[in-house]
Amino acid sequence: MNEDFEKLWEKVKTQRDELRVQSHLAQAELKDEWGELEKKWASAEHNLKQMQAGAKDTTDELMTSAKVVMDELSSAYDRIRARLKD
C-alpha cells in the first residue's frame, strides 16, 4: 500500500478507537444519570399520589415544589434524548 493510504487508514482507525471509548463512557454516564432520574421519578410519583389523595390539603407551596421537580425531570429527559441523537 502507498504511504498516504496507510496514514489515512491509521487516522481513521484512531478516530474509530477514540469514538468507541467515548461511546462506552457516554453509555455508562447515561446509565448513571438515568438511574438518578429514576429515583427522582419514583419520589415525584409517590408525592403526586399523596397530593391526589389529600387534594384539599395541597398547598400552593407543595404544588410549586412538585412543578419544579417535574420541570427538572423534563429538562433532564430532553438532555438525554439530545445526547442519544448525537
Overview in brief:
This protein has helices at residues 3-53, 60-85. The chain has one domain (3-85).
How would you describe this structure to a colleague?
The chain is an all-alpha fold and 86 residues long. The protein has one domain. It is built from two helices and no strands. Helix 1 packs antiparallel against helix 2. It is rod-shaped and about 80 Å long. The relative contact order is 0.09. The mean pLDDT is 85.
Cα-to-Cα separation, first versus last residue: 34 Å
**Please, how many domains?**
1
Rg, Cα atoms, Å: 23 Å
Largest sheet: none
Mean pLDDT across residues: 85
The helix/strand series, from N terminus to C terminus, equals: HH
Structural class: mainly alpha
Question: What is the global morphology?
Answer: rod-shaped
Portion in strands: under 5%
Q: What is the helix fraction of residues, given as a range?
A: over 70%
| pLDDT < 50 runs, ≥5 residues | none
Which short descriptors sum up this protein?
mainly alpha, about 90% helix
List the helices and strands and how they pair.
Blueprint: H1 3-53, H2 60-85
